[in-house]
Design a protein that fits this description.
Elements: H1 38-43, H2 45-48, E1 52-66, E2 69-75, E3 88-92, E4 102-114, E5 120-132
Length: 133
């Protein structure tokens, strides 16, 4: 009978990946660098938005040809697993790298990217090129 059956107190599905209006302050002031750590990219994502950055890490997972892109997860030993700042996702048109490879990655920082279907990222690196070390 025209009643709104949505629960106004239900959790926002986008908050599951941490996209929210409230942002915590970075633990350290932003510093422009040649190479960033994964933790720094998470911490300084607002400062790095739309910039091309470089970092080194180890490939932990590669998923090929999802939405016409290869999705690469890197880890460099920095960050906090509970806060989900120890892993960073990179996209590339195509790549031959594999889990275990140590790489230098260079790409564009994108902030608060929502692909729909629950795939929301506080920070993501797009148009990435990888150089195996």
């Amino acid at each position: 009978l025209g009643l709104n059956t949505q629960n106004p107190h239900a959790k926002d599905p986008h908050k599951s990946m941490g996209i929210s209006e409230e942002e915590e302050k970075p633990a350290k002031p932003f510093v422009k660098k040649e190479f960033y750590t994964i933790e720094e990219v998470h911490m300084w994502r607002k400062h790095l938005e739309n910039q091309i950055i470089t970092l080194e890490g180890t490939v932990s997972k590669v998923s090929h040809k999802i939405m016409k892109l290869d999705w690469v997860h890197l880890d460099d030993g920095t960050g906090n697993e509970k806060k989900r700042t120890n892993d960073l996702v990179f996209t590339a048109i195509s790549t031959t790298i594999k889990a275990g490879d140590k790489v230098i990655a260079k790409g564009k920082v994108v902030v608060n990217k929502d692909f729909g279907y629950g795939y929301c990222y506080k920070v993501l690196i797009q148009d990435t090129t990888f150089e195996v070390k």
